[in-house]
Design goal:
mainly alpha; 12 helices; 2 domains; globular; about 65% helix; two-stranded antiparallel ribbon
């Protein structure tokens, strides 16, 4: 219980208070996991064309992948229990990972490895990602004022988390739970066992109630009136007030939809590459660059492997559906709030 603040605040729900940079940390971790998967695949492909086995090409990346997953689980439990002081372990890990990857990157530069080799690019990306995760960790220390500060910052839980009647916890769960709707499992299990009623559904969070959204829209409408010397000019001012009050979530929904549509091109491209490589009958690459006793392959040689394209196709389709569902969710939620406000 070292440094626990759980005794200072009373949260009825088994959920968590987000630390500073919560969403950015999850996004960076997802990107880190993907880059590590690419590094593992690149090491395996490079090792496959060598005459002898080189475990160092993919084993460290595999260990780093397990460490990244462990860091996510560790962070989730610390955030759920509100134990910010225990994040000091992650601070040390990101620091060591950043230093070691930087040393590896400098070693590549000294031996003439450049952007034409995929391993060089992946190592550079990992240096940037570890550096950004280290910066996020330092920001948590700075904002929450723990470890190196005498007086940690007191955090008051949101009013919704203190209300047993609120069971719609989507705003307070982590990014992975939002993307997979994992937070709804308890509600779905309850609905499966017995018919649900209004008491089971519970109250809406404050941010989603009609009165809250009415106040937001009314303030935006009054701001439009104050900008003009005369009274508002019909529907134009109403549209402007609606865009001002609810424009950001609609823009977010549109961004998710655009990303989903762009990822839709990955499917045909990957399938075309797989068919092309399988049709050639010989899927073995012949890399020309050999440095430090091992082969270095380029991005083009890496993407000429049908197995690599199959894995990329799987990730692209998974991400496409995730963005598409997120777009639908944000648009429908914003529409309900907008209708309640009007």
């Amino acid at each position: 219980g070292w440094g626990s603040q759980s005794s200072k605040v009373h949260i009825h729900h088994s959920t968590w208070l987000h630390f500073p940079g919560h969403n950015l940390r999850w996004i960076l971790t997802f990107i880190l996991l993907f880059v590590l998967v690419c590094e593992i695949a690149e090491g395996i492909v490079s090792d496959g064309v060598s005459e002898s086995r080189h475990l160092h090409l993919y084993m460290p990346a595999g260990m780093a992948f397990l460490a990244a997953i462990t860091s996510v689980v560790y962070y989730h439990n610390i955030e759920t229990s509100n134990f910010p002081k225990l994040l000091i372990a992650l601070l040390f890990y990101w620091t060591l990972a950043f230093i070691t990857k930087t040393i590896k990157f400098v070693k590549f530069c000294d031996n003439g490895v450049g952007f034409s080799q995929l391993r060089f690019c992946l190592t550079g990306l990992l240096v940037v990602l570890y550096g950004m995760l280290l910066a996020v960790e330092i920001n948590v220390i700075r904002v929450r004022r723990y470890v190196f500060f005498k007086t940690p910052k007191e955090v008051k839980p949101p009013e919704d988390l203190q209300d047993l009647g609120v069971r719609f916890l989507q705003p307070f769960v982590n990014l992975l739970s939002k993307g997979t709707y994992w937070w709804m499992n308890t509600f779905i299990k309850t609905a499966h066992k017995k018919p649900i009623d209004l008491k089971t559904i519970g109250k809406l969070p404050i941010a989603m109630r009609a009165l809250t959204n009415y106040i937001r829209l009314n303030e935006a409408f009054e701001a439009q009136k104050n900008k003009r010397s005369s009274s508002p000019q019909g529907s134009r001012s109403i549209w402007r007030a609606l865009c001002c009050a609810f424009g950001r979530p609609l823009l977010l929904s549109s961004t998710f939809r655009i990303l989903a549509d762009l990822l839709g091109f990955a499917g045909p491209l990957c399938i075309s590459g797989i068919v092309h490589n399988v049709g050639k009958g010989n899927n073995t690459i012949r890399p020309q660059t050999k440095i430090l006793g091992v082969f270095f392959i380029s991005s083009q040689e890496f993407l000429s492997n049908a197995y690599v394209l199959a894995v990329l196709l799987f990730f692209a389709l998974l991400l496409q559906r995730t963005f598409l569902q997120a777009s639908y969710y944000v648009a429908i939620e914003t529409g309900i709030n907008l209708r309640g406000a009007i």
